[in-house]
Write the structure tokens for this entry.
Amino acid sequence: GQQLNQSPQSMFIQEGEDVSMNCTSSSIFNTWLWYKQDPGEGPVLLIALYKAGELTSNGRLTAQFGITRKDSFLNISASIPSDVGIYFCAGPTFQGAQKLVFGQGTRLTINP
Amino acid sequence: DVKVTQSSRYLVKRTGEKVFLECVQDMDHENMFWYRQDPGLGLRLIYFSYDVKMKEKGDIPEGYSVSREKKERFSLILESASTNQTSMYLCASTSGSSYGYTFGSGTRLTVV
């Protein structure tokens, strides 16, 4: 089946640093989504990408839809303590009904 | 404020018990989903429903069943709980045309 591989699995950074993470697949996706899960909560949608090569920002977050349509990238600039959490990439499956497949997640920890 | 509500944040059950996890959404969404979250494995789809009384298996349906008698409520049932079903369970919903899921806060189930 379709699988998404995220890297790194975890990151330990200092406050103020920039962060980069990515998501790859052996399958082509027409949509890429990035979600963030705060500790003790469910994931929340951060950014949705709909076109190959698209670059979209949401505040300090920037995500890109890879031109091969098999990867996506998320960057966070000037990290702050509230950026702590797990970041998931996701993409629609072939099976419709708005069904998504999720990556394994990247856990971000920030040292103040 | 629109939301997805899961009935319990923490649950401890004994092996062999029948367990019901309840999820209610107030957004009139057609699609509802049950995922389980385990470290290093991300979110894996158990079951989903795209309409009342309609349900389809996800990637890991074994040992689970679901019920959707009303549009706003989607229940996950563990017929005979086992220790390998100890996990975080997340419910989500979305409208017919969106990949922007709204997640509940999750139920952390421990089976002893």
